[in-house]
Amino acid sequence: MPAACPDGPERPPDLRESFTFGADQPPPAVTGTVEEEWYAPNSWPAEVPGLRPAATAFSAACAGVAEDLLRVAALALDLADDFFVSRCTGDTWTVELDRFPARQEVGTVLPGQLRAGPHTDAGTLALVDREPGSGGLQVRALDGCWVDAPFVPGALTVNAGDLLARWTGDRWRSTPHRVLPPPVELPGEELLDLAFRAEADPGTVVERLPTPAAGPTRYEPVTAGRFRRSRSGSVSVG
User: Under 8 Å CB-to-CB from 58, ≥6 apart: which residues?
Assistant: First the structure.
C-alpha cells in the first residue's frame, strides 16, 4: 500500500485537471451580503459546446439525490425530515469535474505525488460518480490505514462533509480520502470523476443537533459561510 504523502507546501501538485462550476445567481437572502462572493457567472469553454447542458443536467440530478439523502439523514437522527433540507435551500453547491491523466501523458511522477492529495469535503454531502481504476480512490480508516474505496457499478460514492460531522458531533465522520497516482503497470489508465458537493446556506448556524442521536461535540457553533471561508484554499489533512 502506498505511503501517505506529505501535506502542506512541500507536497507535489496533484496530477489532475479540474473544471468547477456552481450556481451563478445568489438567492435573495444572500444578495448584498459578504456571502455574495460565492456566486459569479460560470465560464463555459466555447470549444466544448456540449459540456454546459450535460454538466448542468448532472448537477440538477445530483441536487435531487442530495435532497433525498438529507431527508433520510434527518430521519436517521430522529429529526424532522426537512431539518437539513430547510438549511440547504440557497443553491449553495459546487460541481467539480476531474480528469486524472494517464502516466504516459503526465510523464515523471514525483515522490509522494498523487492524483488528489489527502483531503476532506467541507460541506454537508459529496456525491461522486467515479470510474474504477488501479490509481483510484482511497479512504483513511480509523486505524490510520488507507484502504481502497469499493466501487459498485451504477452507484454513487457518498461522503459526509465536515459540516455534517460538526452537526452530528462526529457521529458521522468526514473521512479523509485521496486518489492514488497513475499506476506504472497501467500507463494508459485515465480516469474521470464527477463530484457534486452540497453546502448549507451561508447564514445557517451549525451546532450540535438537538437530538440524543448526535454525539458529544467538541466544536463551537459556526455559520456555514464563515466555516466555508475558513476552509478556502486549505483542504488538506494530516
Answer: 95, 129, 194, 196
Beta bridge partners of 198: 93, 125
Instruction: Name residue, grid cell 505511503.
Output: 3
Q: Are 104 and 188 in contact (CB under 8 A)?
A: yes
- Cell 460538526: give the residue: 166
pLDDT higher than threshold 60 for residue 19 = yes
Locus of grid cell 485515465: 190
pLDDT at 238 over 70: no
Cα–Cα dist 98/106, whole Å: 15
Residues 165-182: tens digit of each pLDDT: 999 999 999 999 999 999
Tell me the whole-structure pTM to 2 decimals.
Answer: 0.88
Residue in the block written with cell 488528489: 116
Phi-psi sector, 233: left (phi>0), alpha (psi -120 to 50), beta: left
The cell 507546501 sits on which residue? 9
Q: Which residue has the cell 462526529?
A: 170
Alpha helices in the chain (DSSP H): 51-76, 103-106, 162-167, 224-231
Give per-residue pLDDT as tens, 119-153.
999 999 999 999 988 888 999 999 999 999 999 99
